[in-house]
Design goal:
Number of helices: 7
Strand content: 25-35%
CATH topology of the largest domain: Nucleotidyltransferase, domain 5
CATH architecture of the largest domain: 2-Layer Sandwich
Distance between the termini: 53 Å
Shape: globular
CATH class of the largest domain: Alpha Beta
Helix content: 25-40%
Largest sheet: 5 strands, mixed
Strand order of the largest sheet: 3-2-1-4-5
Structural class: alpha/beta
Order of helices and strands: EEEHEHEHEEEEHHEHH
Length: 228
């Protein structure tokens, strides 16, 4: 089954996009800071222009549903809905932590993104014959409260490990390696999305929703003092 689709992620400080076309994937990524809303759509259009395609020639749009930055998740959902409605396309949301696991190339992964406020978004994954199996999460917690994964031989990936040294210490004995620079790249998202799209899991545009995990977006002044 031949599928053509765009995948994109804005859940972290990186903005990434990928075009899956006839089994081949082309991708772009840029450190966006707070410029995701400026970069994303031009990035998507550039990928299509390079391939000589238009949005109407796609079979679906795939977006990073979170967890991650509240603003970033809203941007991804908004762009997915807007473009999907305009081109009459279905959408598929993919878990950002699972994308991190896929991007790592490892078989057993503790994926952690910096959630700010002295917390991380965490998920524990193991690769199997049918794809990734989630052993724990997604959840939000303090770095020293990330649950210990069963067994050992895991790789810790994501910005949570770069932001909080105690995270690796908490998981000491379970981790073989740590990659704090690993990001949830749209290229990895496309690989995860392909079998799901083939199974017909895409949904109408209005079903696009973010996975926030945490409802609170900021600390009060007294709370900030307590974690400083």
């Amino acid at each position: 089954m031949s599928l053509n689709f765009l995948a994109f992620d804005t859940a972290t400080e990186w903005c990434s996009a990928a075009l899956w076309r006839d089994g081949a994937c082309t991708a772009r990524a840029e450190h966006a800071g707070q410029r995701h809303s400026e970069l994303l759509v031009p990035m998507l259009r550039a990928l299509l222009d390079e391939a000589g395609m238009d949005f109407t020639e796609l079979d679906a749009l795939v977006y990073g549903m979170g967890p991650g930055s509240f603003t970033g998740l809203r941007i991804a959902c908004g762009v997915a809905q807007g473009l999907a409605l305009a081109a009459d396309l279905p959408v598929l949301g993919v878990n950002t932590l699972e994308v991190l696991a896929e991007q790592s190339g490892a078989a057993r992964v503790v994926a952690c993104l910096d959630a700010r406020m002295r917390e991380v978004y965490a998920g524990i994954y193991q690769r199997g014959e049918e794809g990734w199996r989630c052993l724990s999460g997604p959840l939000v917690c303090r770095p020293d409260a990330v649950p210990l994964p069963p067994g050992s031989g895991y790789v810790g990936v994501g910005s949570g490990f770069a932001a909080y040294a105690e995270l690796a210490q908490t998981l000491d004995g379970c981790l073989d390696d740590v990659d704090g620079a690993c990001i949830p790249h749209a290229r990895a998202m496309a690989r995860l999305a392909l079998p799901r799209l083939a199974r017909g899991e895409a949904r109408p545009a209005e079903h696009a929703e973010p996975l926030y995990v945490r409802d609170k977006v900021a600390l009060k002044t007294c709370e900030r003092a307590g974690v400083a």
